[in-house]
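FW: tagging you since you asked about this chain on Friday. Here's the raw sequence from the shared folder, copied in full. Didn't touch anything.
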Amino acid sequence: MASGEGRRHRHDLVPLAALISREMKNEKMEKPTVRYGHAAQSRKGEDYFLIKTDCQRVPGNPSSTFSVFAIFDGHNGNAAAIFTREHLLSHVLSAVPRGLGREEWLQALPRALVAGFVKTDKEFQSRGETSGTTATFVIVDAWTVTVASVGDSRCILDTQGGAVSTLTVDHRLEENVEERERVTASGGEVGRLSIVGGAEIGPLRCWPGGLCLSRSIGDMDVGEFIVPIPYVKQVKLSNAGGRLIIASDGIWDALSSEMAAKSCRGLPAELAARQVVKEALRTRGLKDDTTCIVVDIIPPDNSIQPLPPPKKQNKLRALLFRKRSRDSANKLSKKLSAVGIVEELFEEGSAMLAERLGNDDSAGQTTSGLFTCAVCQVDLAPSEGISVHAGSIFSTSTKPWQGPFLCADCRNKKDAMEGKRPSGVKVA
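HL: got it, structure written out here
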């Protein structure tokens, strides 16, 4: 088995000692300090959050520590938000192949996030409860930030120099034309609430159910074309660091991304989170649950909080996204870091499961030669697994027997999300 720096197959195992020594070698660039703060004002009691700063990619190896920050904004009750807070993280991590080095682990995260979101939704719907929740789920591993989201909670990035970028996409039917078209193509009906006399009021909603979001976890009474497949974005910050503001729509209905970032610049994270909530309430009042998490990713030699805003914002945005090939040399990373550019490593928002899980002959294969379902991780005999590409419109260049594979239950879920069968109808 190769234990050098070359790429390994996902199912190869590496001794823990070798993995730890390789980690130590690779950690030449010091990790940033992560500081965070949280603030909230409750109206309906349906906002929940998760802060976990002691996760370890390799159990027992402190140098593999990463942090998770998430907000879940429930609707039609709080059951889905509570369930998602309790189970989503473990479902995502169980979908990441074992024995990966840090770079490969980061590359595996986007697919694992999709699997974890879908598994959480499937499990919650099996309980027969009708509530739903948005989920904005952020993983901070050293300088790399990975964000997965469904619904309209949002995560923004504020960097030195005052450039603000959004790391999520709002899945609101009112504003998101692409999602409106997907929902109607899958069998949903989109329209406003009709009142006596035929007048229509309020935002665009999906019927049945009347939900104004096109993606969420739960909401089994609306129809399975309201999907839990997240938009995922992964970026690598420069060594100047940056500030993340993660908040429920109680904030974003009152403040633009720029207003939220500007309102708390120069404040430490805890005070910053309180200031954002205070600013939102001052602007709009407490009309909804209002929750905010601020995360500062601070260079190791700089314990000072982010600088106050510059006197004059340059017309040229200070933050530039630069795509890079997965195999690009480390030299490029160092150059980009030196000039303060944030690298965009990954971005995908498709609602098609086949597209999100990709093509991989070895995906889901265990050391015993058995396969596991790419979504729920149950073991499959070779005759049981159904390729995620079988019958897919994306299968023109793939083989229907090519992995990853789904169990029959997850295949039913996939068909329902794509509008290929009525919601709730099981296929034998």
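FW: Residues 363 and 404 are 5 Å apart (CA to CA).
HL: agreed, and The chain has three domains: 32-168+225-349, 177-212, 354-417.
FW: great, closing this out.
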